[in-house]
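Why run this: before we spend reagent on co-expression, it is cheaper to look at a predicted model of the complex and decide which construct boundaries make sense. The entries below are exactly what would go into the expression plan.
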Amino acid sequence: MAVQYIYPEYEVVRNYDRCIACRVCERQCANEVHEYLADSNKMVADDSKCVNCHRCVALCPTRALKIVKTDHTFKENANWSGKSITEIYKQAENGGVLLSSMGNPENYPVYFDKLLLNASQVTNPSIDPLREPMETRVFLGAKPEKIERDERGRLKNNLPPQIILSMPVMFSAMSYGSISYNAHESLARAAAELGILYNTGEGGLHENLYKYGKHTIVQVASGRFGVHKTYLDSGAAIEIKMGQGAKPGIGGHLPGAKIVGDISKTRMIPEGTDAISPAPHHDIYSIEDLRQLVFSLKEATGYTKPVIVKIAAVHNVAAIASGIARSGADIIAIDGFRGGTGAAPTRIRDHVGIPIELALASVDKRLREEGIRNNVSIVVGGSIRSSADVVKAVALGADCVYIGTAALIALGCHLCRSCHTGKCNWGIATQREDLVKRLNPDLGYRRLVNLMTAWKHEIKEMMGGMGINSIEALRGNRLMLRGVGLNEKELEILGIKHAGE
Amino acid sequence: MKRVYVNEQWCLGCHLCEYYCAFASTNEKDMARALKDVKINPRIRIEEKDGISFAVSCRHCDEPLCVKSCITGALTKVNGIIMIDKNRCIGCYTCVLSCPYGAVYPSEDGAIQKCELCIKTHEGTPKCVTGCPNGAIVFEERGE
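The model came back. Tokens follow.
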């Protein structure tokens, strides 16, 4: 094109004193940024193709490469940022909806970073988790309202089906199709070793992974891909996906080009057809309709598994959650506006939904006020970045958290946010065979296990500091939280005091 | 005995093993200084065709044809590892011809060179194994 409106966002900086022209950068870049010039025995790069995924940087054996943000600039303007201008150039060129991947990167408040945890001093003893028992196990599902006894006075087992987790973290829904088989296998094996659960997402379950069924949540979403009797029976729980934090109110679209081989078989749709998940479930237009699906799934599986209903955090989330808690669902999963995605319209991802911290606090409060908090467990997701976020979420009222992005980062994701191109250099968000094999599940699952093991240690340390030896005693314990830099309204919604109070 | 094995399924054909191998036999601390403007002559090599790739290096065979074919006794088997005594090698390359895996190569100084599991350069796991980004090259005990 004669006029190039868009200047490359990143520059590949090569230290020629260190480059030995081994060509690993060239071989490992699916975006074809690097090129070897045989006549001069020299590597060169085309910056315009770089997505800043760091694959070349991470594999360069002599550390000859780094990626920098270009300092090329527009005339400074506090209103019209370079990003806004560039996006207009893009749309003026192609007339299309802007697409993005992974979570909302915009500069909205992160409430987790404005919450601080308590610790014991003098008047109440803290606990050393290395010396004393510390319980991080959680049970998800409806809890009985009262103890019942039979005619001989013995306790009746009136406990509805539960999910038992060794720690309050699960891997959130990411479908086989949106992520690779090797990524799925890594998640499944890690969940099994850790005693937690992973989630199939809406793409069915590959036949090789049925053996991890006890550690699997099988999802039923609006496209109903890959749902059949054996699928439902194989999981430890069933999740009905109503919405996703990254794109509330929006369905999904996996292009036909990705529906090949095992993905077509697992999704139960012909090869090459687009997999379109409608925005709503076409059979659910009310809580009563939702109740029908909840009980259809329970009936189909003999009332042996808890049913999760997953929604995006939106404005009326507390009222919606109250309805879900009365629909027969055992667990509500709420996905905040920073949750990840394999592809979403940029405007939806960046401008729709609400922060998970506020959604969680208001749902927990509403369910308590209505006396139905014990009907359901609450799972929250949408950018849980560390064990501190987990502890804060639990203190705000969550039973457990979902992590998606954090798990992918452990597998090598560098948050380049280019999943929608299907050329993931780390073998995660791609179906290209040569790229998928870059993620060896033997190494990937071990990294996930390491991450969760580290978080578990940290959770115990933070609990011990607060003098709490059971994670269940921390749930909804908002006295353990204080806010910094929050206004009265924010503190009121979060149900916490300001630091110093 | 621990040997270098290749899991072809996970080989990305990135050729890093070749560079870590070439680096291991230099005495430099820094790979950039060791291999800058050097055409490497590694003891492990990637073979690739039609999207399939894998690394090939000495198998340290139980019945090594290279040792049998060596006319000067430069190649010997010591504790399971086939070693080359460069002082005795006369560069006849009979071993190069007889190795069924193509894992013995001429070196720059005229003598032959082959993988000796890095035991002459450092302790522990060979560098091609630690340098493989995807666990495609492993150093492990397998049933003989």
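Residues 16-24 of chain B form the longest helix (9 residues). Helices of chain B lie at 16-24, 31-35, 65-69, 94-98, 127-131. Bring this page to Monday's planning discussion.
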